[in-house]
Amino acid sequence: MADDVRVRRIAAMRGCDRILDGVRPKSLRERLAELSEAAGPELMPDYYGDGLVGELEDRVAGLLGAEAAVFFPTGTMAQQVAIRYGADLTGRSTVALHPLGHQEMHERRAYADLTGLRSVHPTAAPRNPTAAEIAALPEPVGTVVLELPMRDAGFVLPTWAELTEVCEAARGSGARVHLDGARLWESAPYLGHSLAEIAGRADSTYVSFYKTLGGLSGAALTGTTALAAYARLWRHRYGGQLFQQWPAVLSALVGLDRELPRVPEYVRHARTIAAALAQLPGAVVFPQPPHTHQFRLWLPHPAALLNDAGLLLAEEEKVWFTGGWRDTEIPGHAVTEVSVQSPALEWGTDEVIDTGLRLLDRVQN
């Protein structure tokens, strides 16, 4: 049943003329055509990490102001290597993580099961830890992980001063700082500093190529040349030394060329969209204004009704509003994540409100 709904949802989104949340799903033929156009007639595939992979690694290292970057097939693998490096380098088998962080919520605690590390939680508040909380840790840690932005807290970011202070506190305790920057691309406008300046606060940074940039898959880990050498060794041991990765790498390069320059525009327009959504009956938007181009929206209706209403709106009016609603601990209230990207730039305040009211009419009926 879930697969049937997913197929129906993709078909509905592909048929929409207007999309507020997310982007129109592409078919295999469309993705292949996009890659073919970007490749040109003379570009050759990579072999075990050479050629095009090296080009992407150099590009990302330059963007983040790092000595080196290493391409990984997944961010989960990249992050485990970064945390393992911190433990080996410092001799400390404990890592400071947030309970809402990606390692705890979405990586099945691989740092513990695969590497044998332990975690401590500097805070349970829905934000990154502060310098005082790092200084108050009950035991030495090898790595302090900061997620920018913190997705499961609502895509929230610290201020530049807070980020600087917590990084200094971590280093003062003898720990490395690792940035879980899967969505680092959209963090720069709020922090008011370049990607290189943000990554420069830390010892290592992970970025994703399919989040925000629209790549097929893949990630990069940046840092020193020593980290890069270590990362290549452990990437192979973890099974990440693939024979050819050119589809993912080429799509990442396309994303850097086409999407990355537009991210500040997405972030700016997210504030307009969020303010409009907040005017719907019973709506709550967080954070307000958004820190990035993504934020959370609550409505006082069950998730099933909202998902059904959104699907009907798409099929009947060819307009995609939002989807992916899930029930919360508050009875009768549901939450979703809104992602403002290229299609949403066409939406103004009045259209958001009018379409939202039509969605709610379907919920009530």
From TrEMBL:
- Domain spans labelled Aromatic amino acid beta-eliminating lyase/threonine aldolase: 47-289
Is the keyword Phosphoprotein assigned to this protein? no
Q: Does the keyword Membrane apply?
A: no
Q: Name one Pfam family in it.
A: Beta_elim_lyase
Q: Which Gene3D superfamilies match?
A: Aspartate Aminotransferase, domain 1, Type I PLP-dependent aspartate aminotransferase-like (Major domain)
Identify the cofactor(s).
Answer: pyridoxal 5'-phosphate
Choose any GO biological process term that the UniProt entry carries and state it: L-threonine catabolic process
SUPFAM superfamilies tied to this protein:
PLP-dependent transferases
What keywords would UniProt list here? Pyridoxal phosphate
Give the family from UniProt. Answer: Belongs to the threonine aldolase family.
Q: What is this protein called?
A: Threonine aldolase
Species annotation: Actinoplanes awajinensis subsp. mycoplanecinus
